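ok so for the tutorial part 2 we go from a plain amino acid sequence to predicted structure tokens. step 1 is just haveing the sequence, like this:
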Amino acid sequence: MFLGMKRSKYFIPLYTTPFELLGYLRHYSDVKGSTAERSCAVHEMKTGVMTNIAEAQLIALDWGTTSARAYLMGADGHIVAERSAALGIMQVASKAQAETQSLDEAFKATLTELCGDWLDNFENVPVIACGMVGSQQGWTEAAYRPVPANLADPAFELASVEIAPGRTMQIIPGVLDLKELPDVMRGEETQILGAIDLAALNADDSEEQLFLLPGTHSKWVKVSGRTITEFCTSMTGETFALLSTQSILSKLIEPAPSANWSAFERGVKVSQSGEGAADLMLTAFSARTLVLTERLEKNEVSNYLSGLMIGAEICSVLGKQATNDALSLTICGNKELSSRYTRALNIFGIDQVRELQGTAPRGIWAVASAQGLLQTPSV
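step 2 — the prediction. this is what the tokens look like for a chain of 379 residues:
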């Protein structure tokens, strides 16, 4: 059970449905082929209207392992336009190797592909990024900040990389929990700060909150005010993908036309049961044996396994006696997968659930504001 948990709130950005997740992770582990095969269209969505070029305040990037998202932000942090593409750091590294470029050249070219026109049109607007772009495998390393880490502290140092002559991009550092078994995060800390701001939570008192950011590697993060005090990581998403694609269980899985909630909830309940209390490693094989004994259909295996693993994750962190008396949850992330965690948490007796999406750009804005990077509008 996560240490010292009391009246906590949960924020949950989530990976998607089982088969969409498998496709995502197959791409994650198989970035190869020609440049044409790797290149992906940049998708743009306009979310606001900019009436004056001076209104542009920030170019924000959420740049991860397999994808990159860019946001053009106006006054008060509203998003004027956003773009996304499968141009994560893995694709950039692959491009650099294929085209015999330096990593720096490949990152500059990728940034231009993603938002070069914004950079040209708004020459004096600051550029700031979060995520794996600041890792050792990224553009330049942004050294981890140790816990306790105040997410909005103006004193913490951003990393910097030159993106054009005389112009730099700032990179938000990740967070390190240097306990007996160390833990790290990059990008999630910025999502948490954005979630706090978007939800208008009281971040000035000492009430403890617990944020959950599920995905390939789920993060459970304890926060006091706006300060991360400790966190842990669960490899739920990646383990699910491995079991579903490379284990003996993969031979049984048949696609289902839609989410099978009955099979999913069955898996969650098994994780709570006496048999499930033993260990996930001792129950995962039931996804095979239940099929062999004709008590589970092949097109139910993926959802059953998903429920089993999400339930095991919740059990490990919250303990088996979680009730809705002490918990209020906010879910941040993919709508479809949010429903999976909501259903699982409901089975655990946690009924008060709130959903938030798109917290990263708000977190980047909050950091830029705290660091004094934003222009002060003239009166």
